[in-house]
Design a protein that fits this description.
heterodimer; A: about 110 residues; mainly beta; four-stranded antiparallel β-sheet; 12 strands; B: about 120 residues; seven-stranded mixed β-sheet
Chain lengths: ~110, ~120
């Protein structure tokens, strides 16, 4: 069965600190896709990144970076030099062969000025 | 490009009343999802359409919830009668059909409060 675990319920850091959000997934599929979404206080889920199971190359986009490791079934998200605008709930999700998106419970990130 | 449109943004009703939500997906997206998100939790899939056919409605409480997607574009989600535990944000999302490697795009959601 597919499952996504975000063990960190809430993280609070001071602005400009680096922060890593953990995501651990479970699947029996050999081909699957992983996603990160951001949900700011306005409520809309904003797509951040998609990763294919056959591509373990890490990705960097500005202050955001993602570390995908199949050996540990993890797809962690790091924000470098955090800013107050990064405050949001972040969700990790997985899609497998049944086309369903399986969601983690989310990590609430609080960036203090 | 226009995003996923939802209305209304907010709705307050009394228990046992009925309510309907509307969603217009991104043009060209054949797959449409309705999610329920209770405060502090991740989204829970209620129903997934591909064009106007239902792909998955296993978690839809069919005794009170119904959804339709006539003509394979707009969709409505209805609750009748509403219960207190239906208070949540109802999110609509859409994506290209038949592709695993595609992300879903979400609307702003409808925040429902049942009193």
């Amino acid at each position: 069965a597919q499952k996504v675990t975000q063990a960190q319920t809430e993280i609070s850091v001071v602005e400009k600190e680096d922060v890593t959000l953990d995501c651990v997934y479970e699947t029996r599929d050999t081909t699957y896709y992983l996603f990160w979404y951001k949900q700011p206080p306005s409520g809309e889920l904003v797509f951040l990144i998609r990763r294919n199971s056959f591509d373990e190359q890490n990705e960097i986009s500005g202050r955001y970076s993602w570390n995908f490791q199949k050996s540990t079934s993890s797809f962690n998200f790091t924000i470098t030099a955090s800013q107050v605008v990064d405050s949001a709930v972040y969700f990790c999700a997985q899609r497998g062969s049944n086309y369903q998106l399986i969601w983690g419970a989310g990590t609430k990130l609080i960036i203090k000025p | 490009e226009a995003g996923v449109a939802q209305s209304p943004r907010y709705k307050i009703i009394e228990k046992r009343q009925s309510v309907a939500f509307w969603c217009n997906p991104i043009s060209g997206h054949a797959t449409l999802y309705w999610y329920q998100q209770i405060l502090g939790q991740g989204p829970k899939l209620l129903i997934q359409f591909q064009n106007n056919g239902v792909v998955d409605d296993s978690q839809l409480p069919k005794d009170r919830f119904s959804a339709e997607r006539l003509k394979g574009v707009d969709s409505t989600l209805k609750i009748q009668p509403a219960k207190l535990e239906d208070s949540a944000v109802y999110l609509c999302a859409s994506s290209f059909a038949g592709r695993l490697n595609t992300e879903a795009f979400f609307g702003q959601g409808t925040r429902l409060t049942v009193v």
